[in-house]
Amino acid sequence: GALSAIVFLLAELQFTDAEQRTAWKCKQAGLSEVFFAQTTADSAAVPMRSAWVGMVLAAASLSVEVSQACSGILPLAAMLSPLRAFFDATVSSASAEASWLERQVQLTGRKGVRKQNVLSTAGREISRFLSGLVETNEFATGVRRALVSLPVGASTEFKALNSESRRKVHLIAAELGMYSKSVAYKRMVSVTNFGGAKVQHDAELGLQALVETARSTVDAAGKDLGILIERGIPTGEGATLVPALAATATGVVAPLVLAKDPSDFIIPLLTGGIGLATTWQEQVGSETVARAKKSAADMKTQVYKAESLLGRAVLGTGPFPSYFSVAIAATTLSVLTFFEHVPLHMWWINAILAVVSAFATALTARRQKRVGSLVRQASMMVQGSPPPRDWVSNRRWWIAPLTVALALPVDLPRRLAVASVVLATEIGIMMSSSFTQIAAAEFYTARAQRVFAHADAWMQEATAGVRALPKQSAAAVVTTLLAIALPTLGSIFPLVSMGICLQAVRFRSVAGRSAKRAEVEVIDMQTLGSEMPPFPSRAVEPELQEEVLGIASMKSRLTTLQNSFLDDVMPLLMADLKNQDCSPQKLCDMLCNVNDEITWESFRDFFSRFDNGKFTDQQVKRLWLIFEKGPTGMSIPRAEFEAVLSQSQGMNSRILSRMDFRRPVSRLSAKFMGTWDEVRADDYYTTRAAEQAVQSVHASLSELRLSARSSEKDFLRTGVTVGAAVSAALLAPFMLSEVLTELLLPVVGATLVLFCVDQEAAARTKIAAAKVWSAALNEIEATREESLAIGCLYKARLISAAGFSVGLAITTIVLEDPFALCQTFPSFTVVQDSIRWVLILAQMVYAVWSVGRCMTVLEYARRVSKRAAAYMPRRMETREETPKMWFRGMRERGSWDSRLPPVLAMIPGLLLAFFPSGRHFGQRAVASTAAGALVVAVALYVAERAMARAEVIQATRKRTAALSDTFCEAAEQQGAVLPFISAASIAIAGIITFGTELNPFYASGLTLLQALGWIVSSRKGSAAKFESEGALMVNLSSLNPRSTVGLDPLKRFKRWIMG
């Protein structure tokens, strides 16, 4: 048995190393996803900037027909958009580079990182623990003394601390029930006493600790026994338990019907058989969950491959706006060449411009073919329906412009201009087609991501059940060892082993059912299962919290947000006070005591009840930190309180008078003059912005981990129990008889196994719960991604509408002058006017259609922006819109309220077609189509703006889900060593049982190794629980870190430029 345990230990060593490396790579992938989500948010506004420029161009084209002065001023409104787009592109490029850097770290490993194998990790934990025992405790004593004497409401700072010292401050503050936050770049920890309950530090850790441990163990066993009796035998597991029940009955009857020696032989044998059935449950459950994991992993691989193909498709569409802009510019220049004041020899420039437009169209058609191929592969990868191809293809794009140019009875320059118009329109159609195909594939990918989230939730539920089985197996092994070592206790061991086996069967049954549900989910990537996944009941977006990463319970700060909190919350507070007819003086009168001071108790009581509990307890604490400026912190003087209120009240009214322009001007002057200085050597080796972002995120996460609140008291209490057991084992060969020693050593070894396995079961169950929550966040994000994709389907059609409207407007300009045939055949004017009316009516139709599509885009943008919950959606065959239905024409229709704006959209074009009546009909037709083009441009800009805001919100969800995944994988990395420690403890327990028969002195020394294993298991288990708690507390209200600009004009100008 000891040899088998050693073989199992070696296998577990290799598996643990692989699991640890996999978790580390997944964590790096999560961090890369965080930066990618930030890239999406940074670049969301770029299409909106382009749409704004197009709208201004359309407005300028219309104003030419009305007022030349307005047409000269309007282009100035578009000058800021390219600058903002440049800044957006620069910032998004830095975020994308940071994502790429994290990906490179995943592939090549981080430089300077210590070894991550199991043995080196265990060695570091033991070394850290032992160094903590031998080092002086003067720092911790001084911190504790300072915090105990801290008055209620007061704050204190501990500066210039290394990471280990900051961690100790956090731990001591947590024990005292105080609020602590880190300021990493200052190497400082600030602690505030809000009146939390203090723990007893002089508690006895001797006999009382042993009694507490024994009582908690008995309570847990009693609770498990009650659950076992209440639930009984799981459904369908009767045949599995029949042999175990028969063995139990035999073991109970054996002492009554057999002699002592046969009874002493058969009872351990029966107990071991029941224990074998228990360990068999672990094997069966692990195999079932492993198959479900493989199916889910295969599906996840398919989803990621589809996303990779989609990324390549999006990369292929990158030059489309540039091609479209080039074609529009060439078309506009071609129109200018046939006006009266242009010489005749300049008309042939239209041929060159037509060639430029044709070349841009050819490039677009070539890229469209590649994009369509990638989109089809991505759709098929996730079992979606490939989007249909557009009629404008790589082979037929030149037919339409040639046909139209030859058919019109105009001169050659105008024919070339019309050909350029048609080419530009075709580019718009191909853009729209490609974006539509990409949006459809994004929907299919999002649906597959939702299905995977459901399967992952079921799989983690199954994993939670399986990860409780090692504890049952260890308990069965320990029971067998005790039955061998203590044969005099008779039939109690078969009964205990049977209870353990029944518990294991129940866990395995639950895990098996959840694993089967997970396998059912992954059968079809586009169909959601019929059963509600085991998402937490709190999987709903809560009210916005103040935490940057949404980790409210940990109370650790990654950035200082007090000034931004003052800017955001204080104006709302002043407005509420004004609505309740409560001036700052009245508020001070209510809060101040006889000494004109405000205490923490009165402050907390008032703002906790203010406006029906509008402020949370955390926000009330932050309000106190804003007002409290004194060194004692026991109270806030009335003068300071009124000063802060008046500062917030008069901030907006006196902002211009309080601005100090001298410092920004001086700083700008110094920077300008500094550009002519010589370049320093250090400037060549400065860190890039992406590297700084990566370093900042890793530093923030490291500082967050320093603030982990582990229960040192529980650790010491259990440590006393472990120490007492090891001491008894070490002293037994010297102080007890040989018989008692042979009984005691296996019992101690088995008890230490239970301590190690208990840490593993608790930590890994917590990890599974965190992954269920992460799956819920991913499901919410994928649900809104579906709505975003449908909105992009409608928005993509607006691009083709914009191309058509521009083409119609420019064609009307080409046809403004009478045909040459009209001089010979005056009746042919009716034909030309009919063509103009067709163009006008077509433009009005496009205007009406575009506004209607814009209203639909706004509806889907609203759906993306509203709060989401992890829930079972409507079935696909009901009213839920999908790309397959969309391409078939089964599209969502709006109500009369949403139909009214499209009806109003035709009014500008209709009025300008008849008024002013004194103008030539050709001029009125040009103005009418220009107005229609402006309506389409406005609709496109409004849609782009709404979708940009929706994409920013969706990027926040993506970043939140990725952050939760990162914490989960970090927890997996921390907990990967726990199965190995448990296996090592079991192997050592087997060696102790075997070695007791040979040399009890050496066997007793092995308990020291088990104690060290428990220390490693406890510390790594605590770290895994902390990372899991971080994943559980990440929510959908995660905010962007916000820097406070204050009254600095330069910073305010930068924020205005960035939009």
Characterise this structure.
By secondary structure, the protein is mainly alpha-helical. Helix content is 73%, strand content 2%. It has 35 helices and five strands. The protein has a three-stranded antiparallel beta sheet, covered by helices on one side. It has a two-stranded antiparallel ribbon with strand order 4-5. A hairpin with a 4-residue loop joins strand 2 (179-183) and strand 3 (188-192). Helix 1 runs antiparallel to helix 32 (921-975) and helix 10 packs parallel to helix 16. The longest helix has 77 residues, at 738-814. The two termini are 70 Å apart. The model is unreliable at 199-205, 539-565, 650-659, 872-878 and 1037-1046 (pLDDT under 50).
